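Minutes, structural biology subgroup

Action item carried over from last meeting: produce the structure token record for UDP-3-O-acylglucosamine N-acyltransferase (Vibrio ziniensis). EB confirmed the sequence was re-checked against the source entry. Recorded below for completeness.
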Amino acid sequence: MKTLTLAELAAITGGELHGDSNAIIHRVAPMDSAQEGDVTFLSNPKYSKHLAASKATVLMVKESERTLCPSNVLVVADPYVAFAKVAQALDLTPAPAQNGVAPSAVVADDVVMGTNVSIGANAVVESGVELGNDVIIGAGCFIGKNAKLGNNTKLWANVSIYHGVEIGSDCLIQSSTVIGSDGFGYANERGEWIKIPQIGSVKIGNRVEIGACTTIDRGALDDTVIEDNVILDNQLQIAHNVHIGYGTAMAGGTVVAGSTHIGKYCIIGGASVINGHITIADGVTITGMGMVMRSIEEKGMYSSGIPLQTNKEWRKTATRVHRIDEMNKRLKEVEKQLAQKNDA
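Output recorded by EB:
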């Protein structure tokens, strides 16, 4: 169990402490269940009425809520960001691998390996691979020929990195993700599919996190590119030659077709579908189940998913949708008759 004093907590968060700097916490907990030894936080002002009843050792709040707190208070600019930093400091998640190279791992003789590298059981690291300092490769991973992993990058179990893929520093890749698989490239000759070799690669920047079971295809000719500080959720499909800009976040189940360019600081909601060969501007938010069929040229929030209805309501809506053409024809006829009447 890790512990922190409130003085250490203040240093980690950059907050202003009001209370006992020597008090100790060991856990982050929700406000309604926090007990002595816990730190909790308020990120939504509508829950401020519950602050007075909190039993937490310390509460992280904005200045506007400080006087509502019954005990030790840490005033921070953004309580949710402070929560993230404290949770990191108390994190006890085990490393994907440790204590060097496992006896059952297969590592080519010419692999260039930095200091303090750990490789888990049954992992395979092929010829020409370069691994930076403090790289951790989980059990059962495959690292293809001439791939490169930067300092402090971590791969959980069963990640597959194909040949020639480059991944930057401080990246985290969750289990069963595949990076560098072939893009969906074929030509059709009289009904017969002819495979087009995908000779590009995947270039991933620094501080990128990729969820479990996500697939990122290699480029057909140029590279698929993921810029720095991008976060990708579980079970995404990123097709060949997609380019994702700095600081963009994409939620689970999203599919991006080939050669699409997504700008910086975009937020893509879960289960969205993005067409190929289009451009999405910087700062665009697409709400869940968005279907993006054409380029988006201005920042802002965009939606297209249909909210849930009762089955009875949905059946009525579907019936009306099927009658749109008929209704449109009738409306035009009415407009025509009104125009003729006005001209008379």
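Discussion: Residues 324-343 form the longest helix (20 residues).
Next step: EB to file the record with the rest of the batch.
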